[in-house]
From TrEMBL:
It is found in: Cell membrane. It is a multi-pass membrane protein. The lineage of its organism: Bacteria, Bacillati, Bacillota, Clostridia, Lachnospirales. This is PTS system mannitol-specific EIICB component. Keywords: Cell membrane, Membrane, Phosphoprotein, Phosphotransferase system, Sugar transport, Transferase, Transmembrane, Transmembrane helix, Transport. It comes from Lacrimispora amygdalina.
Length: 443
């Protein structure tokens, strides 16, 4: 199970690096079909999807396994796959790129001491070229047939779920995995590649909506806003971040603090998915992040009504059920941290320099927004010697002085030997008292 999790995380990380290209291809499809109606834009979208993106994915996979040299070998291997089997190139390019990058790096490290002086460049270039082509050839002979069968099996299973009307109930799996921070794995590792295959036959895909729908999380946050009046001011920013910013991690802590609210999120998600299915709604490409804005941008105009209705219905169902749950237990579940902090003095001694890294699963969602907000807080506090970054959990550099993550995500950070500050919500600046105290010399 651990191995499968690592493989899926690696695969989703490669795809996450390519998300801007996927979004670009989707935007070109939208513009060519509706706004501009230009054939050349449509051709550009096809070239991006069928050639540029798979090759770039091979390069990124090779780079992760073998550095820059491995990236070049991965590019060559992915190019062979694209020319041989464009239908399954998305998945295969990551596989062969990783293999070529790993073998290229390890092979060169082993034989570099045996290369005669003056022949280093010649040998390296020949080795890189031959290894990349051999990796692509091996994939053509041994991997492509199995990949075709797998894609066919998954595609048939997906079609069966849609025909039988059971695709909405995938929320029983998606929502529980989301709140334990597997949302990027699900979206980038599973729904995205399958959705791209569905695009080729249907022109749009409902799979791009199953995880990115902001409605269920919005409903949970709205329920807290309605039930707990003292939280309304802080909840407004969370509602905006969730729906317009597309950072779904902001509602995870609220469900984790009362797991019964997961029922509200699941019910809302099922209702929204059912609306998407009945109205035949889908996106022309992945929406990243899962914001209402990016979702509508990536949708054909004829699908706007169904998508908006699905989001609103999922938010309404989630909010109604969450309100019933919260009203059954009215006592305050979250401490008003801002009031708690107001009367306390911060130490006046400041650290001269510190490198603080905000961490989340992909390093591009909640951690990016939290780092930007924290930089503003540092300016207000007068701390000028602190550098703030955002990274994924597996990319924390050795020069980091401290890391910050959500409390429930901390268990994924292993082997950390520097201060790790945890908060209930990365985007709630009222929870950073301990970190600020440490930066000011009180830790």
């Amino acid at each position: 199970m651990k191995l499968a999790g690592k493989v899926l995380k690696y695969y989703s990380r490669v795809i996450a690096e390519c998300i801007p290209l996927f979004v670009t291809a989707g935007l070109l499809s939208v513009f060519s079909a509706g706004i501009l109606q230009n054939e050349h834009l449509y051709e550009m979208s096809k070239v991006l999807s069928s050639l540029v993106i798979p090759v770039f994915m091979g390069y990124k996979a090779g780079t992760m396994c073998g550095g820059e040299v491995g990236g070049l070998a991965g590019t060559l291997a992915a190019s062979v796959v694209v020319m041989a089997e464009p239908a399954s190139a998305m998945i295969l390019s990551v596989m062969v790129g990783s293999m070529a990058g790993f073998l290229c790096k390890r092979g060169l490290d082993r034989v570099k001491n045996w290369i005669p002086s003056g022949f280093e460049m010649l040998f390296s270039n020949l080795y890189l070229a031959s290894l990349g082509l051999l990796a692509g050839g091996a994939a053509y002979v041994f991997v492509i047939p199995e990949a075709e069968w797998l894609l066919g099996f998954l595609g048939n299973g997906l079609s069966l779920m849609i025909d039988r009307g059971i695709i909405p109930f995938i929320s029983f799996v998606v929502e529980p995995l989301k709140i334990v921070f597997f949302n990027n794995w699900i979206n980038h590792g599973i729904f995205l590649p399958l959705g791209l295959e569905q695009l080729k036959t249907q022109g749009s895909s409902i799979l791009f909506l199953l995880e990115t729908n902001p409605g269920p999380g919005f409903g949970v946050l709205l329920a807290y806003t309605l039930v707990y009046r003292n939280m309304r001011k802080s909840m407004v920013s969370s509602l905006i971040i969730q729906s317009l910013g597309g950072i779904h991690e902001v509602y995870f802590p609220y469900i984790l603090s009362d797991i019964r609210l997961l029922a509200g999120a699941i019910a809302g998600s099922i209702a929204g998915n059912y609306c998407f299915m009945v109205t035949g709604s889908g996106l022309l490409g992945p929406a990243s992040p899962g914001s209402i804005i990016t979702i509508l941008i990536m949708a054909d105009k004829k699908h706007w009504f169904g998508i908006v209705m699905g989001i609103l219905i999922s938010a309404a169902v989630s909010c109604l059920l969450s309100c019933l749950i919260l009203l059954g237990k009215r006592e305050k579940s979250f401490i008003d941290k801002e009031k708690e902090q107001k009367g306390e003095e911060m130490p006046m001694k400041r650290m001269e320099h510190a490198r603080v890294y905000f961490v989340c699963d992909a390093g591009m969602g909640s951690s990016a927004m939290a780092s930007a907000l924290f930089k503003k807080r540092l300016r207000l506090e007068g701390l000028s010697g602190v550098e703030v970054f955002h990274v994924s959990a597996d990319r924390i550099p050795a020069d980091a002085d401290a890391v910050v993550c959500q409390k429930d995500f901390a268990r994924f950070l292993t082997g950390i030997h520097i201060p790790c500050f945890t908060v209930d919500n990365l985007t709630d600046m009222s929870g950073y008292k301990e970190l600020l105290n440490w930066l000011m010399g009180g830790g």
